[in-house]
From TrEMBL:
Residue numbers spanned by region Disordered: 1-65, 748-767
Designated name of the protein: 1,4-alpha-glucan branching enzyme GlgB
Family from the record: Belongs to the glycosyl hydrolase 13 family. GlgB subfamily.
Gene Ontology molecular function: 1,4-alpha-glucan branching enzyme activity
Transmembrane segments: none
Gene coding for it: glgB
Keywords: Carbohydrate metabolism, Glycogen biosynthesis, Glycogen metabolism, Glycosyltransferase, Transferase
Catalytic activity: Transfers a segment of a (1->4)-alpha-D-glucan chain to a primary hydroxy group in a similar glucan chain
The EC number(s) this enzyme carries: 2.4.1.18
Pathway: Glycan biosynthesis; glycogen biosynthesis
Amino acid sequence: MTPRPSSSGPDPRKTTGKKPAGKTPTGKKPAKAAKRKAPRRTTASANASATTSVSGSEVAVSPAPDAADRERLLAGTHHDPHAVLGAHRVPGGVAFRVFRPYALAVTVLAGELRVGLHDDGDGFFSGLVPLKDVPAHRLLVAYEGTEQEVEDPYRFLPTLGELDLHLLGEGRHEQLWRALGAHPTTHEGVAGTRFAVWAPNARGVRVAGGFNFWDGTGHPMRSLGSTGVWELFLPGVGAGELYKFEITRPDGSRTFRADPLARRTEVPPATSSVVHASDYTWGDEEWLAHRADAPAHEAPMSVYEVHLPSWRPGLTYRQLAEQLPAYVADLGFTHVELMPVAEHPFGGSWGYQVTGFYAPTARLGDPDDFKYLVDRLHRAGIGVLMDWVPAHFPRDDWALAEFDGRPLYEHSDPLRAAHPDWGTLEFDFGRREVRNFLVANAVYWCEEFHIDGLRVDAVASMLYLDYSREPGEWEPNEHGGRENLDAVAFLQEMNATLYRRVPGVVTVAEESTAWDGVTRATHHEGPSGFGGLGFGLKWNMGWMHDSLDYMSHEPVHRKHHHGEMTFSMVYAYSENYVLPISHDEVVHGKRSLVSKMPGDWWQQRANERAYLGFMWAHPGKQLLFMGQEFAQGAEWSEAHGPDWWLLDPEYGASADHRGVRDLVRDLNTVYRATPALWRRDTHPSGFSWVVGDAAEDNVLAFLRLDADGTPLLAVSNFAPVVRSGYRLGVPDEVPAWHEVLNTDAARYGGGDVVNPDPVKPEPQGWHGRPASIRLTLPPLATVWLRPA
């Protein structure tokens, strides 16, 4: 029977799976030793004398590790096992030392040389061979009932070079994932996996996995200088192997931790990291070649927000790739925004409590499967934005929290570390290695997965030291202010690095305060004394809250809230904005978009259609969460996703829902074909009020203007009455106006009150303009007109 390590204590994998039967501690299935020509035996033996005289003045030394080294290796606290184990020149020849718990015998094989090592006890084997130079060698390890010929992990030089270590020490390794983590590779001509982890407070680190029965005793890692990085190359370990790091804390206790840089994980609730090697071949060269043709704020951007696990529950990344691109392209959205896909243990967090920052969630497939989904979206002409969560992380004891026994990724001050709202821990943005971990992570998703942009979650919670904290629960910064200077520096570095490295990328801030300069360049200082944060776009949370509050009122009361629909234009050009109707607005009792609207079912749908028409014409990019494009009445639930059955022709009211979806398709079609709606989103010359004070009528009208002055006229009537002959001032240089979109059209489920014929201006001045037109305004509707 093959010896196995003790099964006492918790399984470090946190899985229900059993240890693989019939394997040796090498991780390979037992096999009969292959017949081979016996190597020549040397005069050296496993019991080489400790007193053999050589070259007159040199005296042979004992090859066995000394007591201190033995104790530290057994305890998992040795910082340099390679200095003890492996083959080393010593007086008298070459000392071979091997640490193989559970082995019965170990023989060194070097060419024709075959040397049996002495069993020193506790899994240690040693021998002294009278050789001048250290030979390349392998080990023949005998276990009960089998033997395996393997490489000696402790004969290899480090896999990280001086440049990697310098950049790691400086916190400037912009491709950190290429240095740390687990990487299948060929090192010194031998195939295996190199492991590296940052754990500066650890007394020792060992690699444990399926290849050693989750007992890392025989695989201690070495500490590389003062970087806090531990490294080990394990021959014979390849892609697909499960692993964790067994860390000896400063107090001597041990903890099994998932790899912070793991690029693949087990499917939750299992928590092991998985050795990964990508062999994906991309096909989106044309997309990438043109991605940077125009900056995001001067290009059309209409975003469909998706929670991948629940969009079509049960589908994998590859199955989603067969459906999602076609659906999004049919509706005319330019981008999808994926709620966080990085690995997270609790599905109910929707991905916003991340434990695997470098691994797409294994719930839907492996990393190459996720690449396939992104690739297919790009080939369908659809950009991919991804929610990214650098503000905080959960406290799971197998992940980042007190990773090496002391606060490491989190702030050392408990008041700074604890996030007051979510029971999580905030990153220590002032620590250069932590900042490097996050900046490189942003680069990783965009470079390795071709992500086109990151929507950064919870920026406000990062920027303010007093965020959700009472007096006495926070301390001012060095200038006496409430700004988190470390977080500001991190966000500036992240944005500057990402825009420098990835052409055409865009970053989007979910920031809900009046922080000055969120989308200003990092080198441009504002009135607050700070450089800009460097984001490309910012969610306009003020517009979202104000406009939804207005729409929730009965039309008879809307005149008292008219300013909520016009106030956004007071600050519309202070930042580059996205108008978000996101998942946050259709959960937790907030009701779906259509259910926020007052009135009966017809009026609710009419209100939603009018609101969407207003939103698509308003300066800023658009974002709409899945399910709202067809007026789903129920709140979103991650357990079952959108109510697709509402679109089934067998359902009696399906036409009502299909009509709203048809409107969204037409909004996107006209929007993308009309530069006036997006070319000058961030410049005051792209917008002009026609009438913004018609509160008694519940009417809003404005012009959107292209760079050459070509206009689009948008008119919204948020009253449930038809307004015939409604006069609006217009430019006199337009000979006639043509209605290009009307949310009350019959095909959308409306009453079909439309303006079918071109509308010619009259020379009567109105609203401060030299000419005017008279329109029929349908009830609870938005109308768009362009020059005929």
